[in-house]
Design goal:
This protein has 90 residues and is mostly helical. It has three helices and no strands. The longest helix has 24 residues.
Length: 90
Amino acid sequence: MTDAVRRAIRTYLQAAIGTFLALLTTMNLAPGQVPDGGALKALALAALWSGVPALLSYVHNALEDHGNVPAILKAAASSGQQPLTHDPAV
């Protein structure tokens, strides 16, 4: 799995969870109440639409990784290592 795919999956999960939580808070469900069919359909559509930014993220990251597009606001990969050698001034 390429890095662009991993980042797209992460973007999708972030968008889907955020959308899911936002919709749940606007449904005004009582504790223990199950959402009706319309609410579940809205959640499913929101999850589907969360894929749009993930797809855009994948395309952009793949183009950057292949050198077809210049990297925008992207630092060199740190491979999980802390790139700072000292604590920044607070």
